[in-house]
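REQUEST ID: PR-0412
SUBMITTED BY: lab tech R.K.
PRIORITY: routine
TASK: structure prediction, single protein chain
INPUT:
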Amino acid sequence: MAINENAELESLIRNAIDGGAEQPAAATAGGAADEEGSEGLDLSTLALVARRSLLWVLLLLVLGGSASWLYLRYTKPVYKSTSLLKIDQRSEAGVVGLGGQIAAAGPSVGASKLAGEVQLIKSEIIYKQLRDSLNLNVNYYVQGTVLESELYGNSPFHIAYVVRDKELYNQKISLVFVSPTRYSIDYSGTAATLSGEYAVGQQVTLPGLDLTVTTTSYFGPATLGEKYHFTIQDEGTVNGYLEKNLAVDISSADANTIQISFTDFNAKKAQRIVNKVDTVYQRAKVLREQENTARTLRYLDQQLDVNYDNLQRAENRYQGFVEKTKTYDVKSEVADLAAKSEDLEEQRLKLNQNMVLLNDIARVVQQAHITRNENETIEQSIPGLGDINDPLLSQLLSQLNGMQWDQERVSRSYTGATEAMQQKNALMAYTLSSILRQITQARKTLLNKVALLDRQQNLIDTKQQGLPSRATEQARLQRPLALAEGTYTMLMGKKVDYNIQKAGTTADFQILFPASEPRVPISPVRLLVYAIGLAGGLFLGLGLIAVRYLMHNTITNTRELERSTQASVLGVIPTYDKEKMEVSRLVVNDNPKSAISEAIRSIRTNLDFISSAKKKRLISVTSTISGEGKTFVTVNLAGIIAMSGQRVIVLDLDMRKPKVNLAFGAENVKGISTILIDRHSVAECIQRTSIEALQFISAGPTPPNPSELILSPRFDQMLAELYESYDVVMIDTPPVGLVTDGILIMRRADIPIYIVRADYSRKAFIKNMNRLMRANNLTRMCTILNDAQSKGAYGYGYGYGYGYGSGGGQGYYEDPGAAAPPTLAQKLGRLFK
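STATUS: complete
OUTPUT:
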């Protein structure tokens, strides 16, 4: 049907061009102006299209919301559980004395340590413990109304299995409890077929699988009849599941925090896995710390053994040196010898001083013995007599000194010849002789002591000559001994520290935020899904409006009509739906106060302004195709003009498909065609109507050559006869888009009127009218917008609730059919039109 309509439209345009080829084209500027008038955004048309598409937009919004609801209804929610850990930075090297080297490595040690912890958490070490502790190798499900739900931690049954055929891994095995003590399983696959009914707790041997099903505390009456199934997963599948859903990220490198999260369809399962990861990671950290401590202790033990051997060898070498040299400490021995040598030197100095003193005493005593000097005592001659260490000599010298004082005292009273003086002189001589003998003996004693000191000094000098080589040897032996002793002591201390650490090993992290059971799924986000659905519906609605606007090819309102053509718009005729008509007919006489009558009166007034200078007027009414209301407008406009007191006659020149006689309910036995062939006169063909001033002449029998008849001189004679009796001659012409008869009449008309039907006439028809105006120089061309169904069609906010039914839409050569009342489907179709 669409192909036929397009072909028809192309035919209309070609006919219009051909029909107007007889006259020269109008100015190019005018045509350009017409083309430009159809460009740009027509806001009124856009608003009209939007209003007419509003129900579709609402329907698309409802569909978008429904699609969102269905997506949420049939999509499993995904939950995410999260915990936050703080890792305490601690360097093991610092414990064994390597802190300086680690500190020199720079600040990247913390980030690298956190990255290492992330890899530890996502390693097989953690995954294996998760599989074993959480029983992730078996998944239990129950089939719901729409979706299946995983029963994690609340399954009414538990299975123990031994898989012999690897093809049974990751396969869905159905299970139904037929009674509290019996169940049936069903599986059909490429590997094997498992089916049958068995007792709960019974070990069942199936092809490739040993299975034992037991009930749990969640088993109850509601369990019977439910459809369950389970899957046994291999390690690779479980590891892939953990790797996909477990996320470990460094939350803050500065704060040394790590975030652990897990996503799953089951919120409780996600929480338990995250908490178990924390626990397993803590245990792994403790085991790793203990392992590191044990490894360090083993290393310390090895080093202690090596250093003990080194220490023992160093001690043996040093012991041999001591035993050989009889010296434990060469340096102290050197100091002792030096001290002894100084002491001997000091003693030698004292002995020499005593020898000098004895020599002085001997000289003074000898001089006193010879001269017997009485003027000066021995004490006065030798002041240092008190330093003599010989007590006998000191006693004799003291006696001598006393004798000298006594002799000096007696000599003042006696002379030397007296007995007293002689006795004293004799006693002094004896004392002097004793002193000399004692001095001689003391000299010998001093010489013996000096000789002894010399011998001692020689012995010390001999010992000092061998000390440098022994000191060097001792230093060489002491260095490895001291190094071995220090290292051994340090290793023993570290071993004690590590043993203490091993006894109280704890994980070096803190759980800042433990995982909690998530209440709201992270996907799908209900608000976002609904927003996307509604936005999609709105987008499609706007797209529909845009497409309908771009594809809008009919005239809807007067604004579109005015923009598309330079012809004057006489007015707008509203829709008449007071009654349904099989064919167009005169309605203004029966409804003189109706909206449609008022609209046509307005058109009559505009016609009076256009042709006020002429008393006799020829008005032609045409359209592009049939069904645009040409005949309806002709008879009712003629009726309104006649009701104003003017004599009006309507001529039906649509001889191929006459309708004027049907509008007035008359016959079409004779008319225009018989007048033009001189079979009947004009008076014989005039027919009366219900309006006294209005008559009409029908088309008459259809001739084979309507165009030739219109071009004949008889047509001009007929018009001249009618001008004598009538003020207005209204001509209902054929559609110009189908035949050229209408163009011939429009050239003769004083006022050619072009009918455009709202929401029926295409915009290409207006272009056809513009071409006709330019090609035929129809400067007085006027147009009327017919069948305006809503106030939007007027473009001025004006509308009526009346109209007419013309059986519109029929082709030119189709008979109009009866307009049946619209059904409910048709009414809904109009809403979506």
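NOTES: The two ends are 17 Å apart (CA to CA).
REVIEWED BY: pending
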